[in-house]
Amino acid sequence: MNAFVQDLLSGIATGCTFALVATGFVVIYRVSRVVNFAQGIFAVLAGMAAESFLARGIPHPMGEILGVLAGALAGGGVGLAAVGRRNTPPLASLIITLGIATGAYALLILIWGDQPVSYAGIAGTTHAGPIRIQNQFLLVIGVTALTFAALAAFFGRTYLGKALTACSSNPHAARLVGIDVRAMSLIAFVLGGALGGLAGVLLTPIQPVSFDSDVDLAINGFAAAVFGGIVSPGLSLVGALVLGIAEAIVAGYFIPSFQTGVALILLLALMVWQATRRRATEQEGT
Amino acid sequence: MLEVTDLVVRYGQAVALDGVSLEMAAGEMVALVGPNGAGKTTLLNTVCGLIDPAAGRFRLGGRVAQVPEGRQLFATMTVEDNLRLGAWRVRDRDPTRIYHLFPQLANLRRRVAGTLSGGEQQMVAVGRALMAQPDLLLVDELSLGLAPMVVDTLADHLVELNRTVGTAILLVEQNARLALELCPRAYVLEAGRIAASGPSTELSQTAAVRAAYLGGALEEAS
């Protein structure tokens, strides 16, 4: 029972990092209608950059914050390339992000080599009765919860957040009232980069990252995002937690190498169930 | 207020506007009528800066805002958010004065815009454009898909706005009868060119305009 609860918590923590990557997908897609294939790269870059900063003596959490900023900067760069030019067709933008994601491997290997990179997160464990929880897991869960609360406040309460939502609700109308949809898309890319970067700096102490760790993160993050139609941060969070927990349980009790596959099949089944339910309610409505 | 000179707009090979010239004084209310595909919406979107003209030019003597065809609300957002976003280019984001103009909207402020009736949505669209405090209001197909009574109410609001605030209004309508009734002066746009212009009373007497837009012959027969 004890071990199960610990697996569950580690699954929730991994799920949280998927959720951050997923929200990056959502934020970017909602405003720019581009599925950003470079989303996983932000996490890898931020994790590796944070490791370098920490190794050079920059203290916690400054090293991690700089890592997140590196992710945001990379997000802005990818955004400029993908949607910076006027009238770039969405399909071209998507291919550009795919190209950057592939090309980034060379850059990452050039700077950090091809070996996994890690650093120590928060040390120690917290005891809750018979259950022992690694503090880093608590940190991941806490920071993710705070981030989602901050995002909800940003999109729900601030004028800039509402302008971003307006671009996704009706881009033509957004242009009509004078909102620069391209500038908003760039802001979304920077935000998406920061969210990916946050996932990276939180994950690296738990799971060392190498240049190609983005694939696993991006696939899980994208699956979680699709669970919410790539537009709902809330449903993405649910999808990401389902994936994280399922993977932890498969790894702990069955065959570890099957963990991603099994989790994705579970999510697929959930989506099929969701779709049939939606169709049923639509039919009832008519 | 608005001076359009020899404006040409192309979509690829297709010519949407083929040398359009048009003038509006401050505080004037002008109708722009014409059939589907004549280029009316293209003209509005060019004046709003959404489309780059291939040739010709236009001069604006103040702020411009558009009430687009089909209302184009932020359907997933609340009425109040829609109104506030209309003020993106100006400082004052307080929608109170819109609620004075359309008291109905005050009660609907927390409702999601997409769930409102057509007439209510059109009020939000007009209100959102007015939030930009325009000197020139471009109204595209105000009457489309709305009940006659609702159209009358909205039209009254526009006329009152024109009279009291002095906002210049360019009214684009397929319903030429309504447009010519409301506006003292009108332009007829056909296949990207101005086919006729002048005082509405004169235009509505012209045989060609009557036949094409007012269903003149048919109506007199009935």
Please characterize this protein's 3D structure.
The complex is a heterodimer of chains A (286) and B (222). With 286 residues, chain A is mainly alpha-helical. Chain A has helices spanning 2-32, 39-55, 62-83, 90-112, 135-157, 159-169, 171-176, 181-203, 214-227, 233-253, 259-285, and strands at residues 125-128, 131-134. The longest helix of chain A has 31 residues, at 2-32. Chain B has a six-stranded mixed beta sheet, sandwiched between helices. In chain B, 42% of the residues are buried. In chain B, strand 1 and strand 2 (14-24) form a beta hairpin. In chain B, helix 2 (79-86) packs parallel to helix 5. The A-B interface holds A 159, 162-163, 165-166, 169-170, 172-179 and B 48, 50, 65-66, 68, 72-77, 81, 84-86, 88-89, 93, 128, 132.
What's the layout of helices and strands?
The complex is a heterodimer of chains A (286) and B (222).
Chain A: H1 2-32, H2 39-55, H3 62-83, H4 90-112, E1 125-128, E2 131-134, H5 135-157, H6 159-169, H7 171-176, H8 181-203, H9 214-227, H10 233-253, H11 259-285
Antiparallel strand pairs in A: 1-2
Helix pairs in contact in A: 1-5, 1-6, 1-8, 1-9, 1-10, 2-3, 2-4, 2-8, 2-9, 3-4, 3-8, 5-6, 9-10, 9-11, 10-11
Chain B: E1 2-11, E2 14-24, E3 29-33, H1 40-47, E4 55-60, E5 64-67, H2 79-86, H3 96-101, H4 103-107, H5 118-130, E6 136-140, H6 148-164, E7 168-173, H7 176-182, E8 185-190, E9 193-199, H8 200-203, H9 207-213, H10 216-221
Parallel strand pairs in B: 3-7, 3-8, 5-6, 6-7
Antiparallel strand pairs in B: 1-2, 1-4, 8-9
Helix pairs in contact in B: 2-5
